[in-house]
Amino acid sequence: MNEPSKRPEAGKRHEAIDVGDFVYAATGDRVRRLTMPDGSHWFPAVDVCKQLGHSNPQKALSDHVPEDHRDILETLTGGYGLSIPAGREWRRDLNVISLQGLIVLVNACTKPSCAPFKQWAAEVIETVQREGSYTLEEAEVQPSEPGAPIAYAMPEQVAEAIVRLEERNLQADEQLAVSQHKLVALHEEIVETQREILETQRAALTAQQAMALAMERIANRLDSLILERPAPTADLSTPPTTESVLADWRRRLSVTEDVWTVAVVIAPVLVEEGELRRPLESIAARTGLSVHRVNECLRLLRKHACIRSQGASEDGAPVYVLHQS
After folding, report:
1. Rounded to two decimals, what is the model's pTM?
2. With contact defined as beta carbons under 8 Å apart, do 307 and 298 qualify?
3. In whole angstroms, what is the distance from residue 130 CA to residue 39 CA?
4. pLDDT tens, 169-196?
């Protein structure tokens, strides 16, 4: 932000061209400015170099700006008994250049946008060399206040440069507004998409919960039907065989592979010996299942009325017989 200019003291010549417009025409931007009590203007070198395309401000200063037209902010303000301006942008070690140093930097710039300003500066030098002076034309409209200074017209080249820069800034503002509008629209679209995804996820979760409840009700109903179903009546006239027992179990059971593995092992024993007196470890060794899983398989066979428990043997092994009506 530019610092306000000091009002010229009595006896000092009024500036014919507004320094803000002057710098704007030269650099293409309204860079920060410090105006000292004696009316001299100083500018942060980093601001000017940035607008003129110098990537290394220190090198640009050492290559183009004489030492008497560049200074350190703390040294410059201290010489006038002033403090450092407020704000983090104004560091004590900030390099600053005078208005003349700024013009030198502009003349060293190769950007096409600096050409009108450099052409006008060359015209001023040529006019002074030829006529001994350079005078601005007075503006057509002069201030009406008593004692107001004379208003001068902006040099044509400088005015045209300012107009072009203002047009460029307006175009940039319009492009920025369009981009911001697109960004807002994109943000709204993203929010809407996220809302739709969330609703879809909620609907899917509700459907999964409903399906799980339905499956649970079906499973409970099947269990109740199995428990209520009477056990098949055995044909007492024909002794059961291993094949008939397994065939009967297969018709009535819908079990996993490990349950059927246990059934195949115990069915011959039940048919031939009339009962099963085997430690769970023995059955586990023959089936390759764990003792716990063997116990679960036997419990399932009891639940479906395939076998009945007859207590335990003297050594603690469970005793099972075929379930017959």
Report:
1. 0.42
2. yes
3. 29
4. 667 677 777 888 888 888 888 888 888 8
